[in-house]
C-alpha cells in the first residue's frame, strides 16, 4: 500500500471535517461516497465491454483502475472518519484476509 495513503487521508479527512464537520450525517455521507465510487467502477467496466450499443466502448482498463483508486481513497477517508486507528484496523484486516488464504478448508 502506498506510504502516502494515511498521511494524505488524514489531510483529506481534516479538510472535510473543517468544511462539513464530523457528525453522524457527515459520516453517513462519507460511507455513501464509497458506494458512489464503486458504482463508477462498474460503469467504467461496462464501458470497457461496450455494453451500451448506443455508446459503444467508452472506457479502457486504465479508467477502471482510476475508479478503483477512488474507491480505495473514499474507503480510507470513511475509515479514518470512523476511528482514529484506521491504519491499524486495515492492517489487521489485511493480514486476516491473507491468513484465510493459507488456511485449508
Structural features:
105 residues; mainly alpha; globular
Give a verbal description of the structure.
With 105 residues, the chain is mainly alpha-helical. The protein has one domain (22-102). Helices cover 77% and strands 0% of the residues. It is globular. The mean pLDDT is 95.
Secondary-structure topology with pairs:
Layout lengths: L4 H16 L3 H26 L11 H22 L3 H17 L3
Tell me about the largest β-sheet: none
Strand elements, count: 0
Assembly classification: single chain
Extract low-pLDDT stretches: none
Structural class: mainly alpha
Brief account:
This protein is mostly helical. 77% of the residues lie in helices and 0% in strands. The chain has one domain (22-102).
